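The pair is listed for reference:
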Amino acid sequence: MRPRWKGKGSAQLALADPMSKIVSKLQSCLTESKSCASLSNEVVLCEAQPEQAELLNRACFGRPVATVTKGRQWFQLGLEEAFYLSNALNCLTVVGEDGSPKDPQNLGKCMKDRQSMLPMMYKAYSHLRMKNWVVRPGAQYGVDFVVYRHHPALVHSEYAALVVWDGDDEFGKARMRVWSDWHCMLRLCGSVAKSLLVLSISGVNSSSEFPACLDEWTIEEYTIGRWEAQQHREDEVPLKAN
C-alpha cells in the first residue's frame, strides 16, 4: 500500500525533515538538559521545557497533558515510549514512585510488574522505532500499534501492527488462535485502508528478566492480506462445445 500523504507538499516536507534527524535532536536535547520523568501506575509523566515539548511533539513521543499551571508543560509517555527513551536512546532518567532513579534493570522490573506483556510489546515497538517508523497506540483499531512513515500530521498510518509470540512456551500464545480472528482483523484493516503487519517474536525462554530477555528474542515481520477471488481468477474464456 502506497503512503497516503495529507495535502499537497506533505511528502516534500517529510523528505526535508526526516524522522531520524528529529529523534536525534530530541535525544541531544533531553541528554543536555538531564531530563527526568516519574513513573506513575502504567504511564510516565515528564515535565518538558518549550524546546523539549516541541521535539517530543515532532518526534511523536507521548501526548501533552493539560495543566492549570501557566508556563509548565507535561507529557504523558506510554511504558514502551519511556523505556525506549531511557534504555535505547539513554536520554531520559525515570524516577520510581519511591523517588529514586531507576537503572534499566530495576526500571524494567517495575514496568513489567505493571504490564506483564510489556517485554513483548517493547521488543516490537523498539524494532520499528529503530527503523525510523513512528509508532503510536492502536487500540482504536483493535491492534497493538499503528505505524506511520512520518508525523501523523503529514501522512496517514500505513500499517496496523499486531504482536504475537511464537516461542517455545505459552507466553502470549492466547492471541489470534483461530482463523476467524484473522479474517475479522483483515476485514477491519481493509475498511480503514491499512495493511496488517504481524510482528512475530520468538525465543526459548520468556521468563528471563526484562530487559535482559530482549537479547534472547528474535523478531520477524509479516504483512497479511485478504485473498480476493476476483483479483486472482483467470480471464473468462468461453467453453467450446464438443
User: Anything to note?
Assistant: The two ends are 45 Å apart (CA to CA).
